[in-house]
Write a structure and sequence with these properties.
It contains 21 helices and 19 strands. The protein has helices at about 1-20, 65-70, 80-95, 105-115, 140-145, 155, 170-190, 200-205, 255-260, 320-325, 330, 345-365, 380-395, 400-415, 420-430, 440-450, 455-470, 485-495, 505-510, 520-525, 550-555; strands at about 20-25, 30, 35, 40-45, 50-55, 75-80, 100, 215, 225, 240, 250, 265-270, 275-280, 315, 340, 375-380, 435, 560-565, 570-575. The strands form 6 sheets. It has a 7-stranded mixed beta sheet with strand order 7-6-1-4-5-19-18. A 4-stranded mixed beta sheet has the order 11-10-13-12, with helices on one face. Strand 2 and strand 3 (about 35) form a beta hairpin. The longest helix is centred in the N-terminal third of the chain and has 22 residues, at about 170-190.
């Protein structure tokens, strides 16, 4: 049995690498509207072999070869909302997934091409030339392109995926989702049956900027939008502003430089590059000698700071906006240090890493449970059931079986005491949402925590250091530094009298308003916010895993039990736990 398990796993890896693509999906359990960590990872080949892995059971020693398999960009991972799944795997289990292809994006492109429609309006063309947005869930795509209806019953979808023993229906459901993902990729990308996803076919299913497409939070496929649209013009024009005595002040874009010229506030000194010398003495001129201001008077290239790519660039905030928007103005105004350029692939990598750090901050700063940490909006399931029942009776009473009509009427009667047209109309208009008036955004909770313990500069340095260690950027501006701004703010704070109104703000930025001592809880004393993050990004290197064992060798013996089920005409569905 052990030999067979090792052989099957090895064959799975060989097939995936030969075909160049697998279907990927994840399952998890939700409790009280909150998602629990990913419980099942599904991988399937086009030829029909599916592997179901209980990822939590692999901790703390997740096989290195499984990590390499998921990180291999040469093997496409196809499914619906694969970017969302990859983000969850990174946040829950520190598993990076590269080479993701969201089948909804591919389906929209294929269906637009079949209709001969181009441009923005094409995305709104549905089946039969319907102008509504087409359904893009996995079942809808399977019906349209494979002619197969999937089991998407509510009970199996919302079942307990953390259970020790899964039902046969759950195993079949999980396996089919991954298998259909692999077959949809084959159907949508066009290679004849039996062929592999070679380099050419892989390129055909990787549209420009694919990694920057977001589809919302639901796997139903509604709500196509661009997550990181590329810039329409260069971010850096590298024009110069000078003080009246010729001292460089900063670089700026061409529109700002022309604004000074048009109003007579400056005169042109040079045209290539454009240099504008101001005719008035600017306030806040930096002092002589080295300092943070040197960063803003250097030439900056319009390239991805990680890999050097020049196309499809978009802005990336090293310190995410959900935290920075709560910073005091002293810390966030007039600073472009933490705004960098990334290509779509590097943006995706950064998003995966950001998800992991955000989860760590949730654990560190939101240890206290209570109304403030609950979701902003919850759903009253009782009212939701009444609303759905009333709506179904209003829309489809004549088409429903009598037994079903009676069930729905009982639901409405339990709430209104009667079933009348007025009650049905009122039920259909019920608002089942529960608004949490005490809700505090995660970003604000973290900012308030750091304002007390460690200071906001520690939070800012932590995100900057995380950016360096996660992405290993090779093209950052020379003077980019995790400690940027500390010297300037420290000097400004030292120059203030103790009773100055800005003194508390500087304290919350630099050191925190409360000292960390033995009286503070263990969560605070162990919180990385009190550490100082100083990293030379030029010295950071990847941890290279020299272990080159095959996937089968690495997984063999790691799992306590397995179940092999027949699936259609092709042999095995493997279940690892």
């Amino acid at each position: 049995m052990s030999f067979k398990l090792g052989l099957i796993v090895f064959c799975h890896s060989s097939e995936a690498r030969r075909e160049g693509a697998v279907g990927l999906d994840c399952e998890w359990t939700s409790e009280d509207g909150r998602r629990r960590p990913v419980a099942i990872l599904q991988l399937a080949t086009v030829s029909g072999l599916c592997v179901l892995v209980r990822v939590p059971h692999l901790h703390p020693d997740i096989p290195n070869s499984l990590k390499r398999f998921l990180e291999d960009e040469s093997i496409l991972k196809a499914g619906v909302a694969t970017l969302e799944d990859s983000a969850f795997l990174m946040a829950d289990h520190r598993l990076k997934v590269h080479g993701c292809v969201d089948l909804r994006h591919l389906a929209v492109q294929v269906e637009q091409g079949q209709k001969g429609v181009r441009g923005r309006d094409a995305a709104q063309v549905g089946p039969n030339n319907d102008t509504r947005t087409p359904r893009l869930g996995l079942n809808a795509l399977s019906v349209r392109h494979l002619g197969r209806v999937l089991d998407k019953g509510f009970r199996v979808r919302t079942g307990n995926w953390d259970a020790e023993i899964l039902s046969k229906r759950q195993v079949k459901y999980a396996a089919e989702d991954a298998l259909v993902g692999a077959h949809l990729l084959l159907a949508l990308s066009g290679p004849p049956a039996g062929t592999s996803f070679n380099a050419a076919s892989q390129k055909s299913v990787r549209p420009s900027g694919e990694d920057s497409v977001e589809w919302g939070n639901e796997k139903s496929g509604q709500g196509l939008r661009r997550g990181h649209p590329p810039l329409q013009r260069p971010l850096y024009d590298n024009c110069w502003l000078e003080a009246p005595d010729g001292t460089p002040l900063c670089t700026c874009d061409i529109r700002k430089a022309q604004w000074y010229l048009a109003r007579g506030l400056g005169r042109e000194v040079s045209c290539d590059p454009l240099v504008v010398r101001l005719t008035f003495e600017p306030s806040g001129r930096p002092g002589p000698g080295p300092g943070d201001h040197q960063y803003y008077i250097q030439h900056r290239d319009n390239i991805c700071v990680v890999c050097g790519a020049k196309d499809d660039l978009s802005r990336k905030s090293v310190v995410p906006h959900e935290y920075r928007c709560h910073f005091p103005s002293l810390l966030k105004n007039h600073s472009s240090h933490d705004l960098v350029l990334l290509c779509p692939n590097c943006h995706h990598r950064a998003a995966l890493g950001d998800t992991a750090l955000r989860s760590a901050l949730v654990h560190e700063c939101q240890s206290q449970s209570g109304p403030a940490t609950q979701p902003r909006v919850a759903v009253d399931r009782t009212l939701k059931a009444v609303k759905n029942a009333a709506g179904a009776l209003l829309r489809s009473h004549a088409q429903l079986p009598p037994a079903r009509v009676q069930q729905l009427e009982e639901v409405v009667r339990s709430h209104f005491g009667e079933v009348t047209p007025a009650a049905l109309q009122a039920g259909a208009e019920l608002d089942a949402r529960l608004i949490n008036e005490d809700y505090i955004p995660h970003g604000l909770i973290v900012v308030q925590h750091y304002q007390k313990f460690g200071g906001l500069m520690a939070l800012q340095q932590r995100w900057r250091t995380h950016f360096l260690t996660t992405l290993q950027p090779c093209h950052l501006p020379v003077l980019w530094s995790p400690s940027h701004g500390i010297a300037t703010l420290t000097a400004a704070a030292a120059a203030l009298p103790p009773d100055h109104p800005d003194t508390p703000t500087y304290t919350s930025i630099l050191t925190g308003t409360e000292s960390v001592d033995s009286a503070v809880t263990d969560n605070v004393t162990s919180c990385p916010s009190i550490q100082k993050y100083e990293v030379n990004y030029l010295s950071v290197s990847h941890d290279v895993d020299s272990n080159a064992e095959a996937l089968s060798d690495d997984l063999l013996g790691m799992y306590k039990s397995k179940t092999i089920l027949e699936h259609e005409n092709r042999d095995e569905v493997m279940f690892f736990s």
